[in-house]
Structure formats: structure tokens, C-alpha cells
Amino acid sequence: MEKQRLNALFVLILFVLDLTLLSLALPIAYNLRFNLLSRVSYFYVEPNEAPQFFPYYLTVSIVLTILWIILLVFSKAYNFKNLFSYYPVVNAITLGVFIVSSLSFFYRGFSYSRLVFILTWGVALLLTFLSRLVLYILRLTILGKKPLRILIIGNNEFARSIISSQRNRNYTEYETIDRENLDFSDLEKIVSEKDIQEIIVAGKISDDELLKLVSLKRKRSISIKVVPEGYLIFAKRISFDEISGIPLLEIELSALEGFQGYIKEALDFVLGTLGLIVFSPLFLIIAILIKLDSPGPVFYKHLRVGRYGKPFYLWKFRTMYKDADKILDKYPELKKEFEKEFKLKNDPRVTKVGKFLRKFSLDEIPQIFNILKGEMSVVGPRPVTYKELEKYGEYAEEILRVKPGLTGLWQVSGRSDVDYSQRIKFDLYYIQNWSILLDIKIILKTIPSVLFGKGAY
């Protein structure tokens, strides 16, 4: 239990640090506004006109600190696995300032400074970042820079998807073991020899095996996670119910089935318009480069399958030589590989400029027109051809319920390095668990994937 006590201690330290530092956020913001910024002519306030901190700002400071802590708890910022995740912290701090500042404007007995609330938001973010930095240094000093070693039981698609989506996490090492070759009684020895801190079971597990894992968790204080094989793609779209003491899982429809689907379409139009404005200077530059590099048209269109199976032409900048298919006929092995995966790492048909455009996904910019025409979405499943659709089998109908995307979960999880089975899993997961927040996350993750040319060819 030593490890659990140590983890609990780290959580307690972070909680105390947050509580202490967040209580200072508004007082610091108050002093910045009325003591420092008041020296600037634009923000100048007569000394005798500056509001007193007590009692109004002090009361707000206490209320805001308590609200922040409550929001941080509910956002699971104090779960050990989220200790160094800053995303729930930003959400909690922003929401807390918004609620308190909004309510303060309805209070007519005192006029609060809007700038103080803005400064409070910034100071709180800085202080919570510092508290996590202090905890990280403290933890590093005590435990050292040891990698998190994870044992995945199972060598199936789920295991490969987990490793693929987490491959960029620093200080994380994975060990995999075949489910058929494992005696759960040997797990304690394996955990001890390989210094495993977490076990993920990617597949079915019996009650007896589950009890052995529970026993192992008590002895070794390691994290145990089980992938519910039959429900993996539904994730958040599952609700829990009970009949006569029997736990039931109810599968719900994707949020895209309702009103939020219209919100997504409106966002697509807005983002598509902004994208057209931002990237319009590149159109001329890329067009000139393509023309100088090889003869042929600037744009290339290809028939793809759209929503509900409706065909549409996907637009790209041309990246191949003219008569590309004839070139591929000269390479039988490459042609066979292409017919299997519809991708080639060393494609002889691609021009010099085309390789550069593909590496940084610049060839896909014209798909903005597909988005504005309503044929594609900014984020969605990978657009496929009718021939590729055969590989989707029974999942094709489900995936075609939504528009294909310029980017998607498949792209930020490895792009061309992801095989078809994994692409299908990512697409199904995205459809079932869609939210505006998920779209924003994918868009933000796409930027480094594109800039570093990860998995593209």
C-alpha cells in the first residue's frame, strides 16, 4: 500500500497548493489593477477613488476560491491520473470566473471592475500551473524520472489501438502478452520482474481471472483496467440502469442524431469560410509550384462516398504525374500493395512538389470547397472510395451516417500509419462519442500532426 499512500499524498499536496494559491488570485489581481496598472494613463484611477478591498472584493475572493475548488473536484482534476493534466483546470478556472463575474454584475450595491475579473482569471491560471510545476518537481525528486510501464494483456486490435493512440506519451513503455499464453497466476511474478505499474486487459476476462487481478491490485497497488470488448466504440454513449439488482448497459444514439448535428454544420460553414480566407494566398503559390514541377492540371478530383452513400468529387491539389496509373503498372509489387491498403510509402507516381504537399497535407486545402458545399465536414470519418468501402463490411452503413472529414480521429492517431481495422474503430468511436469539444480537441491535435508531417505519405 506504500504506492497508494504516496499517490494520495501527492493529491493532498496539490489540493493544499491549489487552495492556498487560488485564494491569492483575486487579491493579486486587485493589486495589479489598482496599484500597478493605475500608473498607466489609460488605466489611471485617482487614489481616493480606488475601491476598498474589504469587504466586497474579499467576499468575492472567498466565494470564488470555494467555487473553483468544487469545480476542480467535479472535473476530476484531483484524480491521480489527471494530476498533471491542465485541461480540466482551465475549464474549472474559466467557468468559475464566468459564473462569479456574471452574478456580480446583477449586484447593484457595488460596481466591480471587469478588469479585475479578467486579471483574476489570468493569475489563477498561472498559479495553478505553478502548483502543478512544484508538484512535478517534488515528485521527480522523490521518485526520479522512471517511465510508466504498462502491461497489455491481449494482442488484438484493441491493444494495437491503445498503443497507437498513446505512442507519443513521454515516459511510457508498453509490454504486451498474448491472452492464450498467459496463466493469471503468473501475473504477480511478471509484474515484479518487469516493474509494471498498470495492467490493461484488452479482451474477455472470466470472473476467476478478475478476482486474481483484484488480489494483485491489493498486493502490488497497481492500476487495473479492462477494455469491455463488446462496448468499446460506444464509450460515453452508454448509460447504466438496474432491474431487480441486475446491472444493465443501455446504448444511446450519437449526439449527431439530434439538434447538435445542426450546430456542427453551422460550425463547418464558419470554419470553412475562415479557412478559405486564411489559405487563399497559398492557392496561387501552390498552383505555380505544381505547374513548374510537372505538366498537368493544378487540381485533381476523385470520386468519393459521401453521407448516406451519396457520391461526390473530393478536390485536392495534383500531387502525381499525368498517366499515374500507367506508371504504377510498371511496378507489379507496388500495385499489389496499393490495391490492398490504397496507400504507398514510396509511390513512383508522386511528383517532387507532390511529396512536399502530401507530407504537410497542403494537397488537401481545396477540400475547403467540399466543406462549404456541404459535402464534407471539418472533422469526421476518413473519406473513402467505393472500392475502399468494401473493407468496411457491416460497419459501412454506420460510418456513412455522417459526413467525411478533412481531419479526424484517424489522422491524429497515426494518419497513414493506421491500418483499416484501426481506422474503422476510430471512425465508429468518433461517431458514437461526438461532441463539439471532441471536434475542438481533434482540430488542435491535427496542427502538430500536420506541422511535423507525422504518418503522412
Automatic annotation (TrEMBL):
InterPro entries found in the cross-reference section: Bact_transf, EPS_sugar_tfrase
Location in or out of the cell: Cell membrane; Membrane
MF (Gene Ontology): undecaprenyl-phosphate galactose phosphotransferase activity
Residues annotated as transmembrane: 7-30, 54-74, 86-110, 116-138, 269-290
Annotated membrane topology: Multi-pass membrane protein
One matching Pfam family: Bac_transf
EC annotation from Swiss-Prot or TrEMBL: 2.7.8.6
Predominant cellular place of this UniProt entry's protein: membrane
UniProt KW keywords: Cell membrane, Membrane, Transferase, Transmembrane, Transmembrane helix
Span of domain Bacterial sugar transferase: 264-451
Highest taxon of source: Bacteria
GO cellular component entries: plasma membrane
NCBIfam families registered for this protein in UniProt: EPS_sugtrans (TIGR03025)
Family, as annotated: Belongs to the bacterial sugar transferase family.
Stated name of the protein: Undecaprenyl-phosphate galactose phosphotransferase
Native species: Dictyoglomus thermophilum (strain ATCC 35947 / DSM 3960 / H-6-12)
